[in-house]
Amino acid sequence: MFEVTNLSPKVGSEVRIDRASFVNGTHAREIERLLVERSALVFREMFLTDEEQRQFASTIGEITLQGEEGVSKISMDPAVSLFADYTRGAFYWHIDGANDPTPAKATMLTAKVLADEGGDTLICNTYAAYDDLPEADKQAIEGVKVRHALEASQRLVNNQPTVAELTRWRTRPSRTHPLAWHHHSGRTSLLLGATALYAEGMSREDGDMLLCRMQEWATQEDYVYRHKWKVGDFLLWDNTGTMHRADWYSLDSDRLMHRTTLEGEEPVR
Ligand code: OGA
Ligand code: MN
């Protein structure tokens, strides 16, 4: 069984597949192809163990070794996740590893515990958003470079940092990327989100407005898939042609996701 149903015209598909074929990679090439075509793939109520999640992940890429052998816990509870501070940054549209030269290829989550309220995951297709831009905007953003830093996303959740906090954020690598990412495939996506600190070579006023305008454009309803979780759901997204965010949920929620990311394969250029 391998059945695909599109969940909206421009983003998101549901895939129905039997567990064994899923885990052993029988359809890995089709899944990889669908992933960049549809931005987000939903596999409902798979109830994967960490081991099965790792097995599947390794059929479509190279697992980033973080957390427990490539599976990390996404939680707001500092007792569960060392990075609970940074998890709050995920409430804002972002790209995983935007501060790296080669952002993650894909991110995947298994839902273990749901929030009582909120906590949907949203993914927007920035390939489609770029394609639909008016020609004048495509020209306006060509060559524009954007500085990405942890500082930008952390300011969204803590806008009066102490000197120690700001210093700590700034020890993390920052990176300049083009706003329009021209991929080897010939397609172009928008690279922006919460990590965008400023547009280089523009006045702060003009640069911030351009980033704001592109973000508003890319996150219009037509480009967004909203996943309403059930326990056991598995959600996979193409991190290079999308932005994503978690919808608000309580900071004392027990919501728990097990996450695996795949190493980036294409440096931004
Ligand atoms: C992530 C992330 C969103 C969510 O794990 O990188 O942004 O809904 N998660 O938990
Ligand atoms: Mn993320």
Question: Can you tell me the CATH topology?
Answer: Double-stranded beta-helix
SS class: alpha+beta
Backbone shape: globular
CATH superfamily: Clavaminate synthase-like
Largest sheet: 7 strands, mixed
Query: Bound compounds, please?
Result: N-oxalylglycine, manganese (II) ion
Cα distance, first to last residue? 38 Å
Counted beta strands: 15
CATH architecture: 4-Layer Sandwich
* Count of alpha and pi helical runs: 9
Helix content estimate: 25-40%
pLDDT < 50 stretches: none
Domain count, please report it.
Answer: 1
Topology (SSEs and partners):
Elements lengths: L1 E5 L6 E5 L1 H6 L3 H11 L1 E4 L6 H11 L11 E3 L9 H4 L18 E8 L7 E5 H6 L3 H7 L3 E4 L1 H8 L5 H8 L4 E4 L1 E3 L5 E3 L5 E4 L4 H15 L5 E4 L6 E5 L3 E5 L9 E7 L7
Parallel strand pairs: 2-3
Antiparallel strand pairs: 1-2, 3-13, 4-15, 5-13, 5-15, 6-12, 6-14, 7-8, 7-11, 9-10
The protein binds N-oxalylglycine (OGA) and manganese (II) ion (MN).
